[in-house]
């Protein structure tokens, strides 16, 4: 299945099965704004909870907060967002469409990566089990040439953006003959910087209102609460503060479904450390965060690290964990060594001291910060798109199945009476009432049982529990596993333990 076709199926499936709807759809929608539907809200919550348990509950020295979306406007001056939170914008004179210049270049490189994938696929087919992908990628002249070209392009772009040499960014677009994706036109304007923050006002009347911004990230709410948390929690360095919440960015081109939106949710943790220890903590959190992703069993080949060519103004090291979405490898999570930039900036702009007194050294210092930041919506898309598959069955039919990690699945089990008579619905209802205290479960009695199985497969439900006439005799039911379609006869009394063994967070996080 072509990647573009697969992505269309992802979007369609998300709507059909109650995961994601276009916001304000009956009014023709709002560009790049989406609503999470009944199943989407559950999946999103489960991802958030999985992150929170791993980050906060499992770490004695990490605590969570929930800071306000509205913050004092000087915070964004101190953080650099007012002056430097920009993306490079370019317009096509013929189509009148607006693009991010860096994304146009990255998409060009993604097409070269697609050529590499094709070369690998051909070689894999040719050599079969003897194929060594790592050796092929590092030695095949064509593939090596492609990789060198990608590296050269991205390095030049990063250097130009860091130096704010927007003339060279445009020159690179022209040299690569990058065209408007919609029209093929290469008639471009100059590249300009575009600030991404949404402005708003706070006050009862227009003349006395204060200019505010919708926060573009959740991190600053952590930094300005650093001292409050440290003192009230008697925290000793190293320690972390975690937060999940909404952020808002006026993206130039918000696209690719929920991958890039104007209203989105972040899951961030700022880890406060002693200056000089940032390299070891950077490596620690790189490894730890990758283990968290891999614990969900979504294939290690779908992940890779990408070190930044252009560092943010506050960072001395930065890498992304990229995921292979249907439209290619893209950033999923960022890990940044932010130095002491943020706390020192807030000290300067607020006039308040934001330092830590280290009793072991008998000295005060401004802590350095190691950040992990993941987009919850992007994680949702990574999980959903990776899980949606079409399978060819032995009887020459196909089934669409959403193989969500069981720990994240919105509905853990569906209880199905074989027929709507003979007392079977009553037993099924009792099972539903018993299990709902521990799991989110569904009751389904409409249509033939085979059709109900297919419906639950497509919805991502890990287990189907069928109550039949034998249940009346021996208090057993058939439990069917979504991924293998294997069916077993089990006692009703054992259902809770069987389901828990598959969906319990502990079972999954212990893989880390």
From TrEMBL:
Q: Which InterPro entries match?
A: aa-tRNA-synt_IIb, aa-tRNA-synth_II, aa-tRNA-synth_II/BPL/LPL, Anticodon-bd, Anticodon-bd_dom_sf, Gly-tRNA_synthase/POLG2, Gly_tRNA_ligase_bac, GlyRS-like_core
Superkingdom of the source species: Bacteria
Reported EC number(s) for this entry are 6.1.1.14
MF (Gene Ontology): ATP binding; bis(5'-nucleosyl)-tetraphosphatase (asymmetrical) activity; glycine-tRNA ligase activity
Please give one Pfam family short name: tRNA-synt_2b
Where is it located?
Answer: Cytoplasm
Residues annotated as binding substrate are 100, 217, 264-268, 371-375
User: Among its keywords, does the record have ATP-binding?
Assistant: yes
Ranges for domain Aminoacyl-transfer RNA synthetases class-II family profile: 142-417
Q: Which CDD domains match?
A: GlyRS-like_core, GlyRS_anticodon
What broad class describes the main subcellular location of this protein?
cytoplasm
Could you state one GO cellular component term attached to this entry? microvesicle
User: Keywords in UniProt for this one?
Assistant: Aminoacyl-tRNA synthetase, ATP-binding, Cytoplasm, Ligase, Nucleotide-binding, Protein biosynthesis
* Function, in words: Catalyzes the attachment of glycine to tRNA(Gly).
Name the protein family. Answer: Belongs to the class-II aminoacyl-tRNA synthetase family.
Q: How does it assemble?
A: Homodimer.
Instruction: Provide the protein name.
Output: Glycine--tRNA ligase
Q: Which gene encodes it?
A: glyS
């Amino acid at each position: 299945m072509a990647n573009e076709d697969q992505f269309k199926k992802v979007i369609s499936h998300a709507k059909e099965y109650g995961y994601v709807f276009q916001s304000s759809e009956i009014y023709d929608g709002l560009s790049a704004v989406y609503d999470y539907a009944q199943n989407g809200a559950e999946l999103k919550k489960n991802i958030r909870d999985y992150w929170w348990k791993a980050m906060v509950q499992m770490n004695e020295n990490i605590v969570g907060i929930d800071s306000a979306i509205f913050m004092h406007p000087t915070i964004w001056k101190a953080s650099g967002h007012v002056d430097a939170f920009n993306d490079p914008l370019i317009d096509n004179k013929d189509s009148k469409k607006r693009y991010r210049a860096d994304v146009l270049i990255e998409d060009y490189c993604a097409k070269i990566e697609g050529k590499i994938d094709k070369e690998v696929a051909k070689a894999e087919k040719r050599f079969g089990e003897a194929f060594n992908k790592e050796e092929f990628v590092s030695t095949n002249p064509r593939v090596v040439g492609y990789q060198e070209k990608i590296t050269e392009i991205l390095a030049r772009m990063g250097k130009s953006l860091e130096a704010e040499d927007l003339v060279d960014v445009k020159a690179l677009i022209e040299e690569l003959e990058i065209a408007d994706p919609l029209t093929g036109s290469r008639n471009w304007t100059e590249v300009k910087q575009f600030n991404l923050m949404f402005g708003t006002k706070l006050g009862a009347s227009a003349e006395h209102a204060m200019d505010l911004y919708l926060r573009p990230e959740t991190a600053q709410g952590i930094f300005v609460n650093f001292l409050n948390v440290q003192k009230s929690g008697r925290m000793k360095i190293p320690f972390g503060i975690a937060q999940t919440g909404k952020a808002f960015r006026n993206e130039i081109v918000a696209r690719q479904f929920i991958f890039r939106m104007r209203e989105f949710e972040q899951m961030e943790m700022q880890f406060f450390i002693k200056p000089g220890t940032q390299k070891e903590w950077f490596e620690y959190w790189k490894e730890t965060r990758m283990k968290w992703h891999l614990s969900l069993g979504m294939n290690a080949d779908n992940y890779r690290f990408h070190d930044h060519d252009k560092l943010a103004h506050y960072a001395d090291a930065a890498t992304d964990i990229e995921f292979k979405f249907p439209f290619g490898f893209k950033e999923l999570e960022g890990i940044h060594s932010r130095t002491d930039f943020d706390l020192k900036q807030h000290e300067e702009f607020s006039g308040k001291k934001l330092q830590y007194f280290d009793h072991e050294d008998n000295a005060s210092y401004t802590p350095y910060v190691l950040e992990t930041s993941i987009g919850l919506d992007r994680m949702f898309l990574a999980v959903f798109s990776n899980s949606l598959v079409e399978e060819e069955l032995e009887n020459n039919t196909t089934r669409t199945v959403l193989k969500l990690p069981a720990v994240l699945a919105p509905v853990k089990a569906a209880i199905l009476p074989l027929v709507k008579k003979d007392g079977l619905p009553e037993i099924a209802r009792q099972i539903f009432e018993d299990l709902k205290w521990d799991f989110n479960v569904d009751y389904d009695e409409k249509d033939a049982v085979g059709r109900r199985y297919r419906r639950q497969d497509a919805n991502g439900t890990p287990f189907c529990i069928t109550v039949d006439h034998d249940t009346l005799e021996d208090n057993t039911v058939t439990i069917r596993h979504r991924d293998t379609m294997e069916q077993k006869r089990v006692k009703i009394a054992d259902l809770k333990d069987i389901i828990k063994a598959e969906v319990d967070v502990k079972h999954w996080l212990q893989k880390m």
